[in-house]
Specification:
By secondary structure, the protein is an alpha+beta fold. It has helices at residues 5-19, 68-72, 83-94, 99-112, 118-131, 135-141, 157-169, 172-175, 177-190, 196-201, 228-240, 252-272, 283-286, 289-296, 416-429, 435-440, 462-471; strands at 29-35, 41-46, 114-115, 142-143, 146-147, 153-154, 205-207, 210-214, 217-221, 321-327, 333-339, 397-401, 404-409, 444-445, 453-455, 475-477, 486-492, 498-505. It has a six-stranded antiparallel beta sheet. A hairpin with a 2-residue loop joins strand 4 and strand 5 (146-147). Helix 1 (5-19) packs antiparallel against helix 3, helix 4 runs antiparallel to helix 7 and helix 11 packs across helix 15 (416-429). The longest helix has 21 residues, at 252-272. The chain starts with a helix and ends in a 12-residue tail after the last strand.
Length: 517
């Protein structure tokens, strides 16, 4: 219709707010990375923010004891949503089509309904016990309290009205007026902290991307408050000094080097990263080739490092994020990752609003000084505070070569997102795999602490696992799949001309897909 990749990404994100309640997204936030046809890159940060009343010790209960329920599942876990402001800012800077045209399809999906897929039906059934605690959630996602089945029509009239207000009023249709009143009223009823003033004060931010190079490829990703871009570029810089060989890092030697790079990137993530508007973050040093060279010298090719319990593990970040990649005819590329945090966020649907609220405050550290072997972290950079954005692992990424984008990728998966995107890139670049093969390849993850490698069941052959364990790595088979990467490759001929676009669709989770027009 004459639009571009930014228009497509915005329209799809709003559509997901209707059809993918697990992670979509009016009540959540995210990040968008864009590379324009001329090579200029930019990013949009619409991560949720803490309300003005937030405090570093707000997740401590009676007697000063840490309360995980308060941290992750109560009304106090809800941050100020950023999605509407972020999508509008990206559209205003990059889009072509009228805003109303991009929001209208989501209105139609909410008002007229859509057939529930089998995957969504199973997900809603799993969340049903927690929906029963919230009448508006139960009413929206069940049929008179009974689970929806695959093929049932899900109609969401309250959500349709909220989307209409966004369609007609832009951000003011969400952060002010009736929708803001509905959010504030539910906050007051449950004792939450988000007030009308917090909603009115929310702003998305256009930021400089994190950029690097890897074996002749330009790497573009998201900077803080996402840790994804910094950790991705740092790990790639470390690995660039090694010959990984073979079809991706699944052989024991290549896997060992990748694990050690992951370990060091996550250690720096823990030490240094947080909201850049709240305190300085040493991004340029962390993504420098010099820093990577120094880290590379600490890697023993014949022995695993040990992660000390005196250092930190980040608190659990929800895995129910969603990612979409878009490339248009002019080779404008967009990587967009959004989330509510856990599946269905806080599980709280705003009465009369029809959308779920996030539980992103759970991504702040637990309390000052509260760092334990169980994985709680009390370090300064990511403590809750008024207006702060909580640290994220989302890693929307674009690779370019010779001035042309060649790969657009991202994934859900909490802290595993960074390493999922890293492995897709390594398979694509080092292994020279087709994008679908790079997405299909088995995955593994190390995050500094706990000191173990989580590996998908088919990741390592017995011989490779034995060799890795012989080097000192502790291998643990993951109970489920790692991530759900969605990627696009731009395929060129020997003369450099673009031949076609290829999609890499992750089949680890239901309901992913690709479409071309």
């Amino acid at each position: 219709r004459g639009g571009n990749a930014a228009d497509a990404a915005v329209a799809t994100a709003f559509a997901l707010a209707a059809v993918h309640p697990t992670a979509g997204n009016l009540g959540g936030g995210g990040f968008l990375v864009a590379r324009l046809p001329g090579g200029t890159a930019t990013t949009f940060d619409f991560r949720e923010r803490a309300p003005a009343a937030a405090k570093p010790d707000m997740f401590l209960g009676p007697g000063g004891r840490y309360d995980p329920e308060r941290h992750h599942w109560s009304i106090l876990s809800v941050g100020v949503p950023g999605t509407v402001a972020g999508l509008h800012l990206a559209h205003s800077r990059l889009g072509r089509l009228p805003w109303k045209d991009l929001v209208q399809p989501s209105v139609d999906l909410a008002r007229n309904g859509f057939a529930v897929s089998r995957g969504l039906a199973e997900s809603l059934a799993e969340a049903l016990p927690s929906f029963r605690k919230h009448p508006a959630s139960l009413a929206q996602f069940t049929r008179d309290g009974e689970p929806l089945r695959g093929g049932d029509l899900l109609v969401q009239p309250d959500l349709a009205r909220s989307l209409e207000r966004i369609r007609d009023g832009g951000p003011a249709g969400f952060y002010e007026g009736e929708t803001a009143d509905l959010i504030a009223r539910e906050m007051e009823r449950q004792g939450g902290l988000v007030k009308r003033e917090d909603l009115r004060a929310y702003r998305a931010v256009e930021r400089r991307p994190v950029t690097g190079t890897y074996r002749g490829h330009e790497v573009v990703s998201m900077g803080p408050p996402s840790s994804g871009g910094v950790a991705l570029v740092e790990a790639l810089n470390v690995l660039e000094g090694f010959d990984l060989g073979g079809p991706g890092p699944r052989g024991a030697r290549a896997a060992h080097l990748a694990i050690e790079a992951m370990r060091r990137a996550f250690a720096d993530r823990a030490r240094h990263l947080g909201d850049p508007d709240a305190a300085p973050v040493p991004v340029e040093r962390l993504i420098s080739k010099e820093h990577a060279a120094a880290l590379r010298k600490t890697i023993d090719p014949a022995k695993a490092s040990r992660s000390s319990t005196a250092r930190f593990e980040w608190p659990a970040e929800g895995s129910e994020t969603t990612h979409l990649s878009v490339v248009d005819a002019d080779l404008m590329a967009v990587a967009l990752t959004t989330t509510l945090e856990q599946a269905y966020g806080s599980r709280i649907v705003v009465p009369g609003g029809g959308f779920l609220l996030n539980n992103e405050m759970g991504d702040f550290n637990a309390a000052p000084g509260l760092t334990t072997e169980a994985g709680l972290v009390g370090t300064e950079p990511n403590l809750a505070g008024p207006g702060k954005r909580m640290l994220s692992s989302m890693t929307p990424a674009i690779l370019a070569k010779d001035g042309v984008p060649v790969l657009v990728a991202g994934s859900p998966g909490g802290r595993t997102i960074i390493n999922t995107v890293l492995l897709v890139i390594l398979g694509f670049v080092d292994g020279r795999l087709a994008v679908q093969d790079a997405v299909d390849a088995p995955r593994f993850h190390h995050q500094w602490l706990p000191d173990r490698v989580l590996a998908e069941p088919t990741c390592f052959a017995p011989e490779a696992r034995a060799l890795l364990e012989g080097l000192g790595h502790r291998i643990e088979v993951a109970r489920g799949p790692q991530g759900s990467a969605m990627a696009i490759a731009v395929v060129r001929g020997s003369d450099g001309k673009v031949l076609r676009l290829e999609a890499g669709v992750d089949r680890r989770r239901p309901d992913g897909g690709a479409a071309g027009f």
